[in-house]
Design goal:
The protein is α+β, with helices and mostly antiparallel strands. The protein is built from three helices and three strands. Strands 2-1-3 form a three-stranded antiparallel beta sheet.
Length: about 70
């Protein structure tokens, strides 16, 4: 099997959240520098911004506890 065939199999089923267009995209989409991911499912990618916000809040609260 060629290297290209192996790369295609690895990227199959990956989903991204595009920060430029604010939408979920399949692997073939905007450049990765403009996206969050990859995620295993479309649903996971759709929740990317909420997960990031939740993590940021938890980190901020942990920093406040350290003060």
């Amino acid at each position: 099997m060629s290297l290209r065939g192996r790369i295609d199999r690895v990227s199959e089923g990956q989903w991204w959240f595009c920060l430029k267009h604010m939408r979920v995209e399949p692997d073939q989409g905007c450049p990765n520098k403009d996206r969050m991911g990859p995620y295993a499912s479309e649903e996971e990618a759709a929740g990317a911004l909420q997960r990031a916000a939740d993590r940021n809040k938890a980190w901020d609260e942990a920093e406040e506890d350290d003060d």
